[in-house]
Amino acid sequence: MPRLDAEVTPDLGDAVVPDPAVEIEVELLLEAVFRRYQQDFRRYARSSLRRRLLQAASRFDCASISELQGRVLRDPRLFGDLMQYLTVQVSEMFRDPPYFRALREQVLPHLATYPFLKVWVAGCSMGEEVWSLLVLLREEGLLDRTVLYATDINPVALEAARAGIYSNDRMPGFSRSYLAAGGRGSLSDHYRSAYGHARFDPALAAQVVFSDHSLATDAVFSETHFVSCRNVLIYFERPLQDRALGLFAESLVHGGFLGLGNRESLRFSAHASAFADFDRGQRIYRRR
User: Fold this and answer.
1) 38-54 confidence digits (pLDDT tens)
2) pLDDT tens digit string along 92-130?
3) How far does CA 283 lie from the centroid of its chain?
4) E strands within 111-239?
């Protein structure tokens, strides 16, 4: 798959050469989805999509991707189910704690100099990163003057992100990462647990805008001071990576910050010159 640099090495490859017929089926299904539902996955990494579409065909009792295409075109409800395969919904709270510690100790002191803040979490998935940032902003005294935009193309994921409810069995891991990221108290200070689930304090999200937004087709919607888009670009082909990075560059104020995943980088991007390294190890960059 085309990559931002040699460090972007997701496990997206297949062990065998793909069947040419399957490749054609994938291309046709993605084109059909774009024409029917205006969701554009045509520049997503093929190997990952191929594998997930084959899984979806099996799950929906289709003998081939072509059969799946026919059913999806005629059944919008099935397309809603297929979205769970077309998008990757894997995350954790305070994932990669050193990244969040760097935000707390290095980035937020700069952002605190602004009278108000706009933060964009692009590809927010089920909301783990959103709630992590909200906790961080609260503990650093910046929450009340921050508007946070949480965007994704998957409506099911957006609703889960909005709810801020996670299984109790995930909370010990979230708590360990929170402390490793420099948490100032206990993560449980920010949620209540009942009936096997933890619900984060809704007051944290009082100024959060959850919205559908596609990095493949949509434009910039606001000027922002910090954009976090982590572990999303690895699923894009190079042209779509560059499109997304161009949106971030256009959105950010001069001196604003961009955070990427630890297997992503700006090197060799068409927009590399728009940014300076701020913390290269944690993939944090600053708008020139």
Assistant:
1) 999 999 999 889 999 99
2) 999 999 999 999 999 999 999 999 999 999 999 999 999
3) 15
4) 117-122, 146-152, 165-167, 191-194, 197-200, 208-212, 224-229
Strands (E), 115-240: 117-122, 146-152, 165-167, 191-194, 197-200, 208-212, 224-229
What is the distance in angstroms between the CA of the first residue and the CA of the last residue of the chain? Answer: 29
Question: Which CATH code fits 97-287?
Answer: 3.40.50.150
From CA 285, how far away is CA 283, in angstroms rounded? 6
Q: Is 13 helix (H, G, I), strand (E, B) or coil?
A: coil
Rounded Cα gap, residues 234 and 90, in angstroms: 13
| Domains of the chain, residue spans | 20-86, 97-287
The strand pairing partners of 279, in sequence order, are 284
Cα 274 to Cα 277: distance, rounded to the nearest angstrom: 10
Q: How confident is the model at residue 91 (pLDDT cuts 50, 70, 90)?
A: confident
pLDDT of residue 8: 36
What percent of the chain is modeled with pLDDT above 90? 89
* Residue 281: strand, helix, or coil: helix
- Read off the DSSP letter of residue 44: B
Question: pTM for this one?
Answer: 0.89
Tokens of 155: 């409506």
Residue 152: what residue type?
A: D
Measure the CA–CA gap between 106 and 3, rounded to whole angstroms: 28
What is the Cα–Cα distance from 78 to 185, expressed in whole angstroms? Answer: 44
